[in-house]
Specification:
212 residues, alpha+beta, Alpha-Beta Plaits, 2 domains, nine-stranded mixed sheet, two-stranded antiparallel sheet
């Protein structure tokens, strides 16, 4: 028998340039290296059962990444065994039994650093207006209102020439929004802005409570 476990981990340093496929491979190698008794998928080439939350764009940092694995109930296991097997750039923050399904993710929270000549007040006021962007998918592109994909957004002064944004953006199966579109919306409105740094903080359900 097994039980489902969830890992919350950081993605920092060199790991920000891992693709989602690279991340999957590194995590699976770490699971094998840890020596913990995990449940494997069968087939010709058995490998650890592992399910990730939404992929993170290249270059973005995170302190709220999630993946699920299955822990066999027999055999030796301590959280330290798993933590010590992961590279420093994928530092594990928590290991726990999940309460929510990953498919319940509806939003993601971000801390975003913008390079702009505008003030925090001007940036926040701009997001209160109907900003439009050309949202692209693999199959099409469509003009949309940013506000349809933003649950909340707050701006604050950063270092000189910078503004910090705390934004909760759509991240579910019904629609998602990359932080890159925030800068695009501002530029379309005549407010020059360039994203310098993005850090994903957490995932949330549709009611705004954090996924656990």
């Amino acid at each position: 028998m097994y039980k489902d476990m969830r890992v919350r981990f950081c993605k920092e340093g060199s790991a920000v340039y891992f693709s989602h496929l690279d991340l999957n491979r590194v995590v699976m190698r770490a699971l094998r290296r840890s020596g913990i008794p995990y449940w494997s998928k069968g087939g010709f080439s058995p490998h650890p059962y592992c399910v990730f939350a939404q992929p993170l764009s290249l270059g973005y940092e995170s302190e709220g990444e999630l993946f699920d694995f299955r822990l066999l109930e027999e055999g030796e296991y301590t959280p330290e065994m798993l933590k010590n097997a992961f590279p420093e750039s994928l530092r594990i923050l928590e290991i726990y039994e999940p309460k929510d399904a990953l498919k319940e993710i509806a939003f993601a929270g971000y801390k975003i650093e913008l390079e702009t000549a505008a003030s925090a007040q001007e940036i926040e006021a701009a997001f209160a207006t109907p900003l439009k962007v050309l949202k692209k998918t693999k199959r099409s592109e469509k003009e949309v209102l940013l506000g349809d994909f933003i649950r909340s957004i707050h701006a604050a002064p950063g270092e000189e020439g910078r503004v910090l944004l705390w934004a909760t953006l759509a991240a579910g199966n019904d629609g998602s929004l990359s932080p890159n579109y925030l800068a695009e919306g501002l530029n379309n409105a005549g407010i020059g802005a360039k994203i310098k740094r993005v850090r994903r903080l957490a995932f949330y359900k549709s009611d705004g409570t954090e996924i656990r």
